[in-house]
Amino acid sequence: MKLHNILLAVLISSPLFAQKSNINPKNIEKHIGFLASDELKGRGTGTKEEQKSAEYIANYFKELGLQPKGTNGFEQAFKANIDTVHALDARNVVAYLDNGAERTVVIGAHYDHLGDGYQRGSLDTAPKGKIHNGADDNASGVAGVLELARHFVQNGAKEAHNFLFICFSAEELGLLGSKYYANNPTIDLSKVNYMLNFDMIGRFEAGKAITIGGWGTSPTWGQVIPPVMDKQKMAFKIDSSGAGASDHTSFYVKKIPVLFFFTGVHADYHRPSDDTNLINFEGEAKILEAVAGIVESVDKVPNRLEYRETAMPMARSMSFKVTMGLLLDYSFNGPGIKVDGVSKNRPAEAAGLKGGDLVLRLDKFMLNTIYDYMGALGKFEKGQTVEAEVQRGSEKLTLKVTF
Ligand SMILES: [Zn+2]
């Protein structure tokens, strides 16, 4: 080893050097503290408080010297359709770090939440008028995007990728902001190598594994992630699927490899008690350091990441005696499961189900999520006939499904 290599090794391993480029939990605390304060009233899509959150994010991107990549400065306005008649004025906030590289990484998180309980999605029994601060969901993810943006601007290194930092609106209404961006991109999506999504990364608990989703969307993930997590001494579990109930799904369906970081559901999930005082800022900093490590590792991969289609959520771990022949919208947040299409000559078609239907109940099982549907299917036998309660537009139907 030459002298300058030794010096370099000493520098890299010294805590002083590390601190300079390191993720700072104080910054994470500041961002979450503001976004999840009562002043912002839960950042409901289309509210003036959500607009205020967007301005906070845009100002921070500007302070960092990032390029605006919305359609009006940093903002990309769109209509968030909540049903066939009503739409809300919503906006994504988009910034770009140009490293002159061939490929780009998208780093995203949604900044909207449930507002003061008038929007659907709350698990509180009487949500109206209660501020759903959404500190973990998803001020924590936004803080992750902002702090990583600062890190990649100020670390003194030029990465082998460009970065698109994006905070989505209307995720809670069905991934509307990320869907809109993926269909109306402000950069060439064919240059995007992969997408990273943070949704609820604030409740890290020492000794408990974090979940990394999207594992199956590229064979490279299995090579680069374990050494990084090992170095961080962080336990993790994987979810192979590229589709799930958050914004990475919108990029996965465009055939872009994705990763989704998630510290897990908890008793305060989608309730007014999801507050800043329950966030583990140090833990989130550790997760973001791991993410930066993954980015650095992929920088050393010479080729574009290979994209793989993944199995449906849980399809691997469950076995069914019956199936319905439904094609589902995996990005739909419920309640109910949303039918995208119906396979020919299968029980769903025979029962009269159609694309666009919401199935709310099967037999005695209420279907709040896709997992309830999977669970219900596991209980039925071939030849059995059960009732399906279906919402079709404004109509409620009861159909008979024979397996
Ligand atoms: Zn969320």
Overall mean pLDDT stands at 90
User: Would you tell me which CATH topology of the largest domain applies?
Assistant: Aminopeptidase
Discrete helix count:
11
Structurally, how many domains make up the residues? 2
Task: Report the sheet with the most strands, covering strand number, pairing sense and barrel closure.
Answer: 9 strands, mixed
Count of DSSP strands: 15
CATH architecture of the largest domain: 3-Layer(aba) Sandwich
Instruction: Estimate the strand proportion.
Output: 15-25%
Order of helical and strand elements: HHHHEEEEHEHEEHEHEHEEHEEHEE
Q: Percent of residues in helical segments?
A: 25-40%
Bound compounds = zinc ion
> Shape from CA axes?
globular
What is the CATH H-level superfamily of the largest domain? Zn peptidases
Indicate the radius of gyration in whole angstroms: 22 Å
CATH class of the largest domain: Alpha Beta
